[in-house]
Amino acid sequence: MIFTTPRLFALFCLWTSFFAVGALPAHSHERRTGSGVGTSHTSGTSKAPSTDTKSGDEKVPVQLWVNHEGQSDEHWVLVIDKVYGFHAIAPEEKPAKPGQLEFKSGLDPQAKLKPQQLAYRPEKADKLMNLDCDATFKDQADMTKVFGELVTKIDMSKPADEVGGNCMDYVKMALEFLQKGDYITSVPKIFTTYYNKNYNAVRKEVYLGGSSDESTEESE
C-alpha cells in the first residue's frame, strides 16, 4: 500500500494522540468531572481529607463534691469536667494528695479562705453530685483561662465565720461567675435548693463550732 504524504501525516497524528491519552494519570478524570471531591492531587498522588479541623466548643459537666458530709469538717468543692476541683480553704490547709483534704484542727473562724484548684480523683466520680449543668468553653485555652480566674477573681475577703466567707459561699460565687461569663446558662436549681436547705446547719457546725448564732443571715 502506498502512503501519500497526507495519509502519513494523518496516521502520525492518530498514533501520537493514542499515546498521549494512554499517558494521562488515572485521576485526571476525577479532577475534571468532580468525582474526586474531597481529595487533593499532586504529581499523580492522592492525599486524604484533612482531619485537623477544630471540634468546636468544649462542653463539660459541672458537679458538686460534698466531702465529709454531715461532719464538723464538711467541705464543698466545685468539680468541672470530673477532674478539675475548685474550693476555698484556709491557706494552711493543704491537700495531702490530689483530691484529698487535710483540715487542721480548730479552724480559726476569723480566717479568710483562699480559692484553690485541686485535682479531683476520677475513681471517686460516684461521690459527685449531679447538678444537671454543663459548662461550655470556646476551646481548651479558654477553659484554662477561666480555671485561673476561678482562683484569682472570686472575692473571699470576708472571714470564714461570716456569711459570704465560707466554702459553700465560694462554690455559689464560682457558679455565679460562670453564669456571668456565659459559660453556664444559669446557677443550677439543684445546687440552689441544696444550698438553701443545708447552708445554715453546715455553717453552724463547721464555721461556728456548733454554737447557735442568732445573727445568722438567711441564705438566699
Task: Report what the structure shows.
This protein is of the alpha+beta class. It folds into two domains: 1-36; 58-207, no CATH class. Helix content is 32%, strand content 20%. The chain has five helices and seven strands. The chain has helices spanning 5-22, 28-33, 140-152, 167-180, 189-207, and strands at residues 40-42, 45-47, 58-67, 75-80, 84-89, 114-119, 128-137. A five-stranded antiparallel β-sheet has the order 6-5-4-3-7, with helices on one face. Strands 1-2 form a two-stranded antiparallel sheet.
Question: What is the structure about, briefly put?
Answer:
Residues 29-57 are annotated as: Disordered. This protein is an alpha+beta fold and 220 residues long. Helices cover 32% and strands 20% of the residues.
Characteristics of this structure?
single chain, 220 residues, alpha+beta, 2 domains, 5-stranded antiparallel beta sheet, two-stranded antiparallel sheet, 5 helices, disordered C terminus, signal
User: What's the total count of β strands?
Assistant: 7
How many discrete structural domains?
Answer: 2
Give the spatial strand order of the biggest sheet.
Answer: 6-5-4-3-7
Mean pLDDT: 77
- Shape annotation: globular
Q: What's the total helix number?
A: 5
- What can be said about the biggest beta sheet? 5 strands, antiparallel
Poorly predicted runs: 18-54, 212-220
> What is the helical fraction, as a range of percent?
25-40%
**Radius of gyration of CA atoms, rounded to a whole number:** 33 Å
By secondary-structure content and strand pairing, the structural class works out as alpha+beta
Order of helices and strands: HHEEEEEEEHHH
Strand content of the residues, in percent? 15-25%
End-to-end Cα distance: 109 Å
